[in-house]
Amino acid sequence: MESITESITEHIMSRISNKVDFHSHIIPGVDDGSRSFEMTSSMLETSKSEGVKYIAATSHFILGEVEYSRSDYDLRLKNVQENIEEINVVPGMEVYINPELKKLYKEKRIWTINNSRYMLIELPMNDFPVYTEDVFYELRLEGVVPILAHPERNRAIIKNEALLESLIEQGAMAQMNVGSLTGAFGKTVKEFAEKLVKRNLIQIIGSDAHNDRHRTTSVNEGRHIIEKINPDLFEWIEENEEKIILNEEIQCLNICNYKEKKFFDFFKRKERR
User: Fold this and answer.
1) Cβ atoms 54, 87 nearer than 8 A
2) Sign of CA dihedral 177, 182, 183, 184
3) Which of 184, 64, 61, 205 minimizes the C-alpha distance to 122?
4) Using one digit for the tens of pLDDT, what is the confidence trace for 36-51?
5) What is the CATH number of domain 20-272?
6) Which of 51, 102, 190, 247 is the most exposed place for a label (fewest CB within 10 A)?
7) Residue 123 in 3-state DSSP?
8) DSSP SS3 for 76
9) Domain-by-domain residue ranges, the chain?
10) What dihedral do alpha carbons 38, 183, 204, 115 form, nearest 10°?
């Protein structure tokens, strides 16, 4: 008869076996991420130790600044894949927003995560370009589901979260950096990230790892924070993250509306009694 300990262990392993890191810069020598194969190996060891099954190698693409061919990328990716065991390193790209993304996609100069329908797209940190919705719409017409990278760090969205809400209502998704929840990017970002989690305004999680020292591939602390803040969202993520990486169609949770409790609300309620 199976022991209780074995049963619990099996349950825990089943929960973590499909864990996905959707955002990382682990391909050495492509962008500002990993500087060597040794660093990449160290980063992936951290991922494996935390039970990650898939990690997307989403190197930066910035038109006119950081560009590379698919053949060169695939060679570098293959070198990593052939020398790493027990984790699936899948192709991807973090595409910097540009009015020409539809054209670039049709020319196969940019690509999706694991050759799926899901594409990771980055905005400027301080701005929300006026053409963003149009570009996302054009990509959706091509069968692409845009995933907005780390919106919780975008200052325009922090000031007006309706910008993100509108994109999601139109069919986009959002990826949150675990470091935003742990405070790695400051108090403002942390508080806004928690708010987005409460409202179901994120769907996937990524480390956005760049090295093995400060911006690492560690994801578990951030995942635990999501589970504590919004258990329903955490359960949805666990049920759907592998489906996304395997190009399955998914149904996102409804966006929640909530009113933040103010410090003086308690006293106002007492006065009305």
Assistant:
1) yes
2) negative
3) 61
4) 999 999 999 999 999 9
5) 3.20.20.140
6) 247
7) coil
8) helix
9) 20-272
10) -30
